[in-house]
Design a protein that fits this description.
Blueprint lengths: L4 H28 L11 H19 L8 E8 L4 H5 L8 H25 L4 E6 L5 E7 L3 H5 L4 E6 L9 H6 L4 H17 L1
Antiparallel strand pairs: 1-3, 1-4, 2-3
Length: 197
């Protein structure tokens, strides 16, 4: 009995510590009172102007990055409202009207892709389409054809998508691991270029 007494006392102390750890925060939160969370509705026009101005700044910054014959991935935002904009999110999966509208957006996007192909003179390389959260086509196009696409009726705007390229991050690798990782990566890159030639 005496051999088990210290372990039982220790167990009892641990249980009490856990219990106190649960009780003390509950008492503190009960004493502080309730705080009401308040929401303030913003003007939708202000939000859309803000997002458009941000998009204009991003496109102005990226204009000098690309040559006219470079291929870029763009989001072609169409003027028709997306399914969520039109029907909201409540019971959208069971809403027959929303499902039918989404199907009509898909067919409208196919028609728009053929219009874009005709305007640019090349078949549009569609990567993916969005109809639920946004009404847009993501596609690979030549940089010089962006202005042509923006002029097509039904196109709201064309935005160059963010490009992640590990070759652009070489400076970051040089600082990591004393430059060892960078040198390995650079050697592999040189070998790959030699095999291409």
């Amino acid at each position: 009995m005496k051999k088990h007494l210290p372990s039982r006392v220790l167990s009892l102390l641990l249980v009490l510590a856990l219990f106190v750890g649960l009780v003390v925060p509950m008492n503190v939160s009960a004493d502080s009172g309730k705080q009401n969370l308040e929401f303030e509705k913003t003007d939708e026009a202000v939000f859309s102007k803000l997002s458009e101005s941000v998009l204009d700044e991003e496109s102005a910054e990226s204009d000098d990055q690309y040559a006219p014959d470079d291929n870029v991935r763009v989001s072609i935002v169409l003027e028709e409202a997306s399914t969520i904009e039109r029907f909201g999110t409540a019971d959208i999966a069971t809403n027959a009207s929303a499902v039918a509208y989404r199907s009509s957006l898909k067919s409208a996007q196919v028609n728009m892709a053929s219009k874009i192909s005709a305007a640019t003179g090349t078949k549009l390389d569609v990567a993916w389409n969005l109809t639920l959260a946004a009404n847009l086509i993501s596609a690979n196009v030549r940089y010089d054809s962006i202005k042509k696409i923006e002029k097509i009726p039904g196109v709201k705007r064309v935005v160059i998508e963010t490009r992640y390229d590990y070759f652009l991050c070489a400076d970051r690798f040089q600082h990591c691991l004393g430059g060892r990782l960078y040198r390995c990566w650079q050697q592999g890159r040189r070998d790959r270029h030699r095999h291409r030639l």
